Q: What sequence folds into this?
């Protein structure tokens, strides 16, 4: 199978590209800067139809991971990359012989800030989605599934919830550094149950979605390890795995949300004033909500439709991470 | 008249239709009805009948929506909006001359003529609609197949005034019902749990403007409070008519109804003694809202009673008379054989009675009760602590044929109130404290005082010729004296209803369990055989229920000096003294009392130790007892076989195991409770993988986990006034569904794995909690443990809640979490999502040991979704 993987410079995208190549698929990757992967590479912006046309040329399938994922930034950026980019990719696919697409999405496209307890996947809904990222992904998912409904291109939306693993600079290492410097408080009781997914399991799920695309087409599937745990336990697990102490300081959830609202306002103001925000702020209201309410999902349909189950348990994942950081200490 | 607004919560707009029919005055009227329009037309062989539903005031046919959506195949459901109500045409009338009851019955009859209802009909009514449905039923006896009445009444003692909430409504009908929506809104505002806003709005949808509410007022004005009221004769006619009704009747009752009282229910039951009753504890006037299961229960009742013609109580009716007479024949045997042997003793005041003295006293009190108006089948609440007085009162009641109601303080005050107010009590025999309590709780009945049990609160009770706010009719001594020269009552039937006991209420409101005389006899016989009791034995009754079985077994008993409502007040010395007082060979106790006996054993002197060493058999009942505690008990009672039976209020003693048997059984999936007693059949209904699926067929195959089903002569007759619960529990042909889950092992031993409602429904299938909890309890520092599920059934996450010896935050530390996960992994492959800590384990009042896992699960779900921690 000839497969295009977009967004292969990210942790998940890179691993998916490698996994597909390892099993013998002919893989092309598309991203803005060289990925360092020894695979056929097309450099270009996800919104440029020219580079997209070149990238999908001859491909049977696409795994679309490229997206703007931060928690801050202007709506224009999110819309351009996540919505317009997906739209352009769909056009390119329909203009070529691409038959399958795995659209990598997020559970946040269907859910507002309230507590999710054993929730189903739900339909993507830009009206309900909170924040620029979720809203733009919701719009993109709607368009991807609308393309599926037209018949020629089979699309399945896969929504991994909090992917983590060794070498994850965005989340795990940031948590590790904060914990090491004592700046990682536990929000509230730390008890809210949160689903996550270990990187290898997420890779397997995306590969399974690619293989089962014709059966699973038109569906949105949340993928997790199926092992919800208290958020406090997960953060402590990450911190310890990177060699940092587990957090002990508690901040009331209300205070954190309030602080998050303040940060949201300040960030918006700084952007308006033209500051370039290279690093994400310490906490946003969205993040505070994520950390103080439950977010876990019903995995029965996902596992049945994909014929997939996680191979790496959370505890095994923590152990692998400990081994990794024992050899590659955080700087 | 407003037009039907279209979609409303829970209501299929396709049901809504209009029908034109002439009203009682011959005028054509447009009715609005909800109609499932039958999957099968009348005349179709699959057509079974029509359910005709009549709402009350101020509701409309919306109140029946669940009855429509839950309809059984072959049944058509028609729920009408009465004229002037809901979305039906307004037939005029005024507050001064409201549409009368007779007119309304006629209106409905003409509507059903227009609808050409010809097949069997089950009439259903709520509130004032119940009276109209009854009126319709009496005029259509040829096609009437059943009658279902929910919180209604056909008779009220108007001389005592209207029920309080109706007084302002009646006096100020115009203001409260018509000009303002007060009455309309109050009806749904009182619903508990609180109704969703959209449902409350749906109830009020037809009554938005004063013009739409005229008939809400007229209905109130039609309550025939005055003797000359035009609707009085029609009401009296209906009330009389019901007494001759012979079709199946179901009475649904929400007890928290400020308008329709227990007296109204008893009146209906007296008119139709064959009626089935189901009480929905916690539900109020809008019982179909407060207890949505009323719809499914009613259809289950129609299936059983109307379609299949099952008999009334749903009980096993294939009974054979006992071979050896009444429940107390063993007592009479002892009177003949050894009249001067000890029958009952109580250590606290040294009172003792021989078998002949006991028999003479029981006979006198029975005759006195009968002469004083206690009749067979009447219910007598007993509020007397275990001992001589309780034994005499109990056996005297049985001899009269009365039904004793035993609601112990272990239910808690609120539980006692619910239990006693709902049980339909005719007489109360109680100590002063008990009578003060029933007065406070509003329990009806004639009160008989048992003297000689003084207490502070008992001072409220007015003795004959004395003072005090709580009146009593007479004392037990008055009864006894009267009985001395009264004839003995006639011997009741061998299977007369004998007792209502209450479940512990550890898993929902306490349920009344009704036993018949022959079942009590069978139960006592089982205990006697099980522990090898002979006339040479006597036992210490430190476990309240067993104190009563002495005379039925023909074995002497002694009540130790303890507060039996607080089992942990039994000391080792107290036990030894009781043994000495009666030369006892046997001890019946509970885990809590034995725990305290072990804890106080160091205070024993040599003589007391010698007494304890005489005990041949000791039995712990009421709650599971850990093997570790039994081992300690063995050091205090060195020569006793230590037994623990498994059973429940609905079937005392299903199986039994002793300490040696427990040691042999070792650990396994659950708690080993031994082999079933002779004559007890145990089978297992396998749990389905998906909780929405039905259970598998009952089996005795080993190592299959499922609900434990018991069949035995001493299984309860039925749950009292809980038709649907009884029907569900006895659905396997007269046996009892225990609500416990477990399995049989290859040696035929039964293992209990938990309560059915505590099964955790994970994505990997059902998981029972007990084995996991026992594994976690082995960890050092863990004082208590419970496994619960959080999240939607079918994909629940497994959570372990612990109480630790050291306190700390709600999330236990990483080490203990890891240790719990490791313990759990040995029992199940389902991952433990979280380990939470609380120092406030919710346990039942009666046994102080049954953990309320539902409450813990609710708390865990709150904490684990980011809610307030607090206490469970």
A:
């Amino acid at each position: 199978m000839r497969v295009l993987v977009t967004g292969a410079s990210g942790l998940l995208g890179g691993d998916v590209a490698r996994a597909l190549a390892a099993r013998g698929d002919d893989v092309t990757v598309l991203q803005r800067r060289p990925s360092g992967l020894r695979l056929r590479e097309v450099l270009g912006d996800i919104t440029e139809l020219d580079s997209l046309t070149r990238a999908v040329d001859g491909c049977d399938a696409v795994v679309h991971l490229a997206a703007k994922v931060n928690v801050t930034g202007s709506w224009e950026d999110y819309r351009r990359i996540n919505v317009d980019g997906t739209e352009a990719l769909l056009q390119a696919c329909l203009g070529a012989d691409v038959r399958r697409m795995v659209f990598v999405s997020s559970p946040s496209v269907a859910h507002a800030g309230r507590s999710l307890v054993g929730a189903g996947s739900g339909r993507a809904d830009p009206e309900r989605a909170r924040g620029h990222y979720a809203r733009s992904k919701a719009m993109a998912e709607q368009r991807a599934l609308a393309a599926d409904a037209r018949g020629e291109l089979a699309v399945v939306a896969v929504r991994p919830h909090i992917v983590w693993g060794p070498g994850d600079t965005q989340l795990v290492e940031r948590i590790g550094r904060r914990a090491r410097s004592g700046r990682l408080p536990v929000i509230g009781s730390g008890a809210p149950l949160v689903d996550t997914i270990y990187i290898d399991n997420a890779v397997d799920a995306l590969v399974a979605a690619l293989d089962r695309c014709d059966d699973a087409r038109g569906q949105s599937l949340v993928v997790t390890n199926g092992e919800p745990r208290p958020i406090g336990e997960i953060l402590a697990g990450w911190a310890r795995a990177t060699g940092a102490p587990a957090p002990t300081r508690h901040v009331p959830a209300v205070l954190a949300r309030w602080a998050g609202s303040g940060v949201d306002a300040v960030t918006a103001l700084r952007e308006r004033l033209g500051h370039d925000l290279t690093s994400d702020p310490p906490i946003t209201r969205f993040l505070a909500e994520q950390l103080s309410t439950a977010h876990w999902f019903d995995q029965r349909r996902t596992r049945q439709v994909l014929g997939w189950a996680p191979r790496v348990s959370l505890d095994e994942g923590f152990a692998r991470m400990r081994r990794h950081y024992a050899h590659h200490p955080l700087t | 008249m407003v037009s039907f607004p279209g979609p409303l919560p829970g209501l299929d707009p396709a049901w809504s239709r209009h029908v034109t029919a002439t009203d009682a005055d011959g005028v054509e009227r447009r009715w609005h009805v909800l109609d499932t329009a039958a999957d099968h037309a009348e005349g179709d062989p699959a057509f079974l009948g029509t359910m005709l539903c009549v709402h009350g005031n101020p509701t409309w046919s919306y109140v029946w929506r669940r009855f429509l959506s839950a309809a059984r195949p072959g049944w058509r459901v028609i729920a009408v909006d009465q004229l002037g109500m809901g979305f039906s045409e307004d037939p005029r009338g005024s507050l001064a001359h409201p549409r009368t009851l007779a007119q309304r019955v006629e209106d409905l009859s003409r509507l059903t003529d227009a609808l050409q209802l010809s097949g069997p009909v089950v009439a259903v009514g709520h509130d004032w609609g119940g009276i109209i449905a009854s009126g319709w039923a009496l005029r259509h006896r040829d096609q009437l197949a059943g009658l279902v009445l929910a919180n209604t009444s056909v008779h009220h003692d108007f001389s005592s005034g209207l029920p309080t909430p109706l007084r302002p409504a009646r006096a100020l009908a115009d203001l409260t019902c018509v000009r303002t929506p007060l009455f309309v809104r109050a009806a749904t505002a009182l619903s508990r749990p609180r109704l969703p806003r959209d449902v409350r709005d749906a109830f009020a949808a037809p009554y938005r403007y004063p013009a739409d509410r005229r008939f809400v007022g007229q209905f109130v004005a039609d309550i025939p409070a005055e003797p000359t009221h035009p609707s009085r004769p029609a009401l009296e006619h209906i009330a009389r008519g019901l007494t001759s009704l012979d079709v199946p009747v179901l009475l649904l009752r929400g007890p928290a109804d400020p308008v329709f009282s227990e007296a109204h229910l008893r009146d209906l039951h007296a008119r139709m003694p064959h009626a089935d009753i189901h009480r929905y504890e916690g539900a109020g006037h809008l019982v179909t809202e407060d207890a949505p299961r009323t719809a499914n229960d009613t259809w289950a009742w129609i299936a059983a009673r109307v379609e299949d013609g099952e008999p009334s109580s749903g009980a096993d009716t294939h009974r054979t008379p006992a071979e050896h007479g009444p429940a107390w024949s063993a007592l009479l045997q002892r009177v003949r054989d050894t009249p001067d042997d000890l029958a009952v003793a109580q250590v606290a005041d040294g009172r003792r009675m021989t078998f002949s003295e006991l028999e003479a006293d029981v006979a006198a009190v029975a005759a006195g009760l009968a002469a004083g108006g206690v009749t067979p089948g009447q219910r007598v609440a007993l509020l007397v602590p275990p001992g001589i007085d309780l034994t005499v009162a109990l056996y005297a009641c049985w001899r009269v044929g009365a039904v004793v109601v035993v609601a112990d303080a272990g239910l808690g005050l609120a539980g006692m109130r619910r239990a006693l107010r709902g049980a339909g009590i005719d007489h109360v025999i109680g100590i002063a404290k008990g009578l003060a309590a029933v007065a406070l709780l509003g329990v009806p009945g004639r009160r008989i005082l048992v003297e000689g049990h003084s207490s502070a609160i008992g001072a409220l009770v007015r003795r004959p010729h004395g003072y005090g706010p709580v009146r009593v009719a007479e004392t037990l001594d008055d009864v006894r004296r009267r009985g001395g020269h009264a004839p003995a009552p006639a011997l009741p039937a061998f299977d007369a209803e004998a007792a209502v006991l209450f479940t512990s209420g550890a898993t929902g409101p306490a349920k009344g369990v009704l036993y018949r005389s022959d079942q009590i006899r069978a139960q006592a016989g089982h205990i006697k055989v099980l522990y090898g009791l002979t006339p040479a034995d006597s036992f210490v009754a430190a476990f309240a229920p067993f104190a009563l079985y002495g005379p039925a077994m023909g074995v002497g008993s002694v009540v130790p000096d303890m507060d039996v409502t607080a089992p942990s007040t039994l000391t080792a010395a107290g036990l030894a003294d009781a043994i000495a007082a009666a030369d006892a060979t046997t001890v019946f106790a509970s885990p809590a009392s034995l725990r305290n006996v072990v804890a106080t054993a160091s205070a024993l002197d040599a003589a007391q130790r010698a007494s304890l060493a005489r005990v041949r058999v000791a039995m712990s009942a009421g709650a599971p007892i850990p093997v570790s505690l039994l081992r300690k008990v063995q050091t205090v009672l060195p020569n006793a076989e230590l037994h623990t039976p498994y059973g429940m209020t609905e079937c005392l003693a299903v199986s039994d195991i002793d300490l040696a048997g427990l040691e042999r059984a070792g650990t396994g999936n659950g708690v080993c409770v031994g082999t079933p007693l002779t004559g007890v059949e145990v089978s297992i209904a396998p749990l389905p993988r998906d909780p929405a699926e039905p259970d598998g067929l009952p089996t005795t195959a080993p190592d299959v986990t499922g609900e434990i089903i018991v069949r035995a002569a001493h299984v309860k007759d039925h749950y009292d006034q809980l038709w649907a619960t009884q029907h569900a529990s006895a659905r396997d042909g007269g046996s009892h569904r225990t609500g416990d889950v477990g399995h049989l092992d290859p040696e035929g031993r039964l293992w209990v794995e938990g309560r059915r409602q505590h099964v955790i429904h994970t994505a990997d299938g059902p998981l029972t909690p007990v084995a996991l909890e026992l594994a976690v309890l082995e960890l050092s520092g863990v004082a208590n443990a419970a496994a619960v599920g959080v999240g939607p059934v079918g994909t629940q996450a497994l959570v372990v809640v612990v109480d630790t010896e050291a306190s700390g935050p709600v999330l236990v530390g990483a080490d203990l979490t890891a240790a719990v996960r490791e313990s759990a992994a040995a029992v199940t492959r389902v991952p433990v999502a979280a380990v939470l800590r609380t120092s406030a384990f919710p346990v039942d009042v009666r046994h102080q040991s049954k953990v309320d896992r539902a409450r813990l699960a609710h708390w865990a779900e709150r904490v684990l979704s980011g809610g307030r921690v607090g206490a469970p």
In short: Chain A touches chain B at residues 115, 117-118, 188-193, 226-230, 232-233, 236, 240, 246, 253, 292-294, 296, 298-300, 313-315 (CB under 8 Å). The two ends of chain A are 40 Å apart (CA to CA). The domain at 2-161+197-224+295-312 of chain A is CATH 3.40.50.720 (Rossmann fold).
